[in-house]
Automatic annotation (TrEMBL):
Pfam families, per database record: GBD_Y3 (PF22803)
Organism for this UniProt entry: Emericellopsis atlantica
Domain of life, per lineage: Eukaryota
Protein name (record): Glycan binding protein Y3-like domain-containing protein
InterPro entries: Y3-like_dom
Domain annotation Glycan binding protein Y3-like: ranges: 37-100
């Protein structure tokens, strides 16, 4: 699904909610039960799936601000969402038609 400007704006709003309500907090290392978190939110233009994976060793806290910043790069970086890895995190934003 192609992200339109309206969907991009809506995705940015739900990304903030996703980070605040579901994706922020403490993560374990990749491959553990708490090394990955996912959230799905409905927008007026379709649904938005977000996945964050902790890709380094040990536990680490993901702040709401760091979470939102990483997801914004995926929302605005490509018209079809995206996935990128940085030092500690892999961020994925995946827009789809329909509802969660």
């Amino acid at each position: 699904m192609q992200l339109t400007n309206l969907f991009t704006d809506a995705a940015a709003v739900v990304a903030d909610k996703a980070c605040d309500l579901k994706l922020g907090g403490t993560y374990g290392p990749e491959g553990t039960y708490n090394g990955r978190k996912a959230a799905c939110f409905n927008t007026p233009h379709g649904k938005m799936d977000f996945i964050i994976t902790h890709i380094s060793d040990g536990e680490r806290d993901l702040s709401q601000e760091e979470c939102y910043d990483g997801l914004q790069k995926e929302i605005h970086g490509c018209g079809k969402g995206g996935s990128s890895s940085y030092t500690n995190w892999r961020y994925k934003a995946d827009p789809n038609e329909g509802e969660c």
